[in-house]
Amino acid sequence: MFNLFKFASPATFYPLAGRLAMGFGIASAILLAIGLYMSFFVAPTDYKQGEGYRIMFIHVPAAWMSMLIYVVMACWAAAGMIWHTRLSSMMASSLAPTGAMFTFIALWTGALWGKPMWGAWWVWDARLTSELILLFLYIGFMALESAIDDPRRAARASGLLALVGVVNVPIIYYSVQWWNTLHQGSSIKIVDGGVESSMSEIMVWTLLVMTFACWFYTIAVALCRVRSIILEREANTSWVKELLQGAKS
Amino acid sequence: MLAALRCMVIRDLTLAMRHRSDVLTTVFFFIIVVSLFPLGVGPDAQLLKEMAAGVVWVAALLASMLSLTRLFADDFNDGTLEQLLLVPQPLALIVLGKVLAHWIISGLPLVLMSPLLGLQFGLEGDELIMLMVTLLIGTPVLSLLGAIGAALTLGLRGGGVLVSLLVLPLYIPVLIFGAGAVTASAAGMGADGHLSLMGAILLLALALAPWASAAALRISVE
Fold first, then answer.
1. A129: nearest CA partner in chain B
2. Residue A147 and residue B148: Cβ atoms within 8 Å?
3. What is d(CA B202, CA B207) in angstroms, rounded to the nearest whole number?
4. How far from chain centre, in Å, is Cα B177?
């Protein structure tokens, strides 16, 4: 049987992460180029919101990623606490900055979108507020991790915090349905196994391409970051020394 | 089990009674923060009445958070906490006892003070009762969630500031529903929905937070 746990060891994961990061990085760059071209030149002008709606093609993927990354991060943190694998908590901490970045992008592009559509940069709407809380959770996670000197304790403490904070994700996701607020409902719904959308087909495709571009970008960046974290934490082990010697000669 | 819980609560209350100034500091902090708002926004009675619930609630969050750092720190410093980790009773129960004592010391006085402060802001009758009821349901949640943050930051440099960064985002739902209930009842709409949600949050926190805090304590002390 193919043994997945083989790659739970940083020494075996390090080269694999390098190859994967390269692959996902290239895929993300290609998708991003296609997605940006489609969102600016192919997708038609919206009859209600004009050209301004095009900001959706970065806003929606960023908002999705901000929530997804938090859940993935919490899963890695949980795995790290259950199996005590060092790599899991390293993955959790490598995802956090990217998640915070996407949360920030979602808030920022949302503000730019809100100004022409709602006439305000910011409203204290349920979804905006809970997305802001998500940003605070990411910052709290990173602050707690950097405040603790011992890396093992840091990983476990911040992992616990990530698990506690995961309660917020469903609140953000369903906030548009629970509270009738200014933020519009989701335009894509999954109904009876099929996908139903209130947008034209080309817009959905553009959105999907952009989403996958963001997704692959996240994977590539997280893997690059985890490689740095592995080198930093394992600096005293023999395989890192051999690796560095190999790189020198 | 219940004996251990009671023993823990009585012990913490006795310790608090020996340092009465600590308890009073929290209450006075609460009163001062609330009193600052009319000075800041001006004495417009209508505006103050609309703001009252939010102001009292935010002040309660801050006051409850201020006393959090002491929740485990004294026991940690004199070694009691290590002994508590070794007792045969579940650690979550011990934590629950400490949280209960913390609520009696820092939460209950705020609940009792709140009608007086509400009166200063021009709230009347039902709204005052509603403010008190929401604080009564809400402040235990603050202590329960705060215990997680206090346990995670135990013994860290700059723990006090860090605890606010960790805990305040988690407090936000309680704040929204707590202040929302008072506003809804002042506007003549029923506050039942808000109160039910707060009750649900309290039960959820009561069931899960002690375990999370216990896990955090083990991480911090090991």
1. B172
2. no
3. 9
4. 15
Q: Does the beta-carbon distance from B165 to A143 stay under 8 Å?
A: yes
- How far apart, in whole angstroms, are the C-alpha atoms of residue A103 and residue A96? 10
B170 in helix, strand or coil? helix
Are A147 and B157 in contact (CB < 8 Å)?
A: yes
- Residue pair A88/A79 in contact by the 8 Å Cβ criterion: yes
Partners of A191 in beta bridges: A194
Give the chain B residue whose CA is nearest to the CA of A157.
B152
Task: Compute φ and ψ for A197, nearest 5 degrees.
Answer: -140, 150
User: Amino acid letter at A21?
Assistant: A
In B42-155, which residue ranges form alpha helices assigned H by DSSP?
45-66, 70-77, 80-86, 91-102, 108-120, 125-152
Q: Do residue B165 and residue A140 have CB atoms under 8 angstroms apart?
A: yes
CB A220 within 8 A of CB A21: yes
Question: What pTM, to 2 d.p., does this model score?
Answer: 0.84
Please give the distance of CA B111 from its chain centroid, rounded to a whole number.
10
Which of A134, A136, A160, A172 is best to mutate for the B interface (most B CBs within 10 A)?
A160
A165 contacts on B by Cβ (under 8 Å):
169-170
Residue A183: closest CA among A127, A109, A108: A127
Place of tokens 């590539």: A220
More confident call, A244 vs B61: B61
Q: How far apart, in whole angstroms, are the C-alpha atoms of residue B11 and residue A242?
A: 57
Residue bearing tokens 């075996």? A12
Residues from chain B that touch A133, judged by Cβ atoms under 8 A, are: 169, 172
Q: pLDDT per position in chain B (222 positions), as tens?
A: 788 889 889 998 998 888 888 888 888 999 999 999 888 888 888 888 888 888 999 999 999 888 888 888 888 888 888 888 888 888 999 999 999 999 999 889 999 999 898 888 888 888 888 889 999 999 999 999 999 999 988 878 777 788 888 888 888 888 888 888 888 887 777 778 888 989 999 999 999 999 999 999 988 887
Nearest CA in chain A to B153: A144
A220 HSE (CA, 13 A, CB side): 15
Which residue from B minimizes the CA distance to A164? Answer: B212
Write down the domain spans for chain B: 2-221
